[in-house]
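dumping this here before i forget
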Amino acid sequence: MNKPWLIAGALLLSLSACGDDAAPANQAEEAPPTPVAGLYKVNAETTVVQPADKGKPRTTAKVGDKQTVDSCVAADGSFDPSLFAEKGDRCTARGTHLSGGIISLQYDCKRGSEGVTLNVAGEYGKDKFEVLVNSATGFRGDGDYTLTRHLVAKRVGNCPAKA
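structure:
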């Protein structure tokens, strides 16, 4: 009387032990170890400009501003910080993580003698990357703000040779 249940249980157990080594058809491509070197066409849009104090934000950026630029990714997968900063800011990397399709970068920037912090987070693939750049200022006096830009980039070729 229990024999049919034992056979059914044994059959289910044996089927569950079978594996399918084939990758699913919709699985995303595996990201290279670092972003691929080359020239990228980068489309950027400012999505947030938020005052951080009582003053008017000391930036010319406005929500909805769009920009398209060409930028090179270096042979080691690193980015030129000016891609993420506002015009004229001088930035140095504070922390970088570029691995397995994940971008996490932190920059300390100077605008004159005042500070700007950038946090860049997103993903990269074989010939593309997409990030959010969050900026926060630390100015003397009023005018501090936070700013967010959305960047989407596609590799379009090799970087031009340096003269």
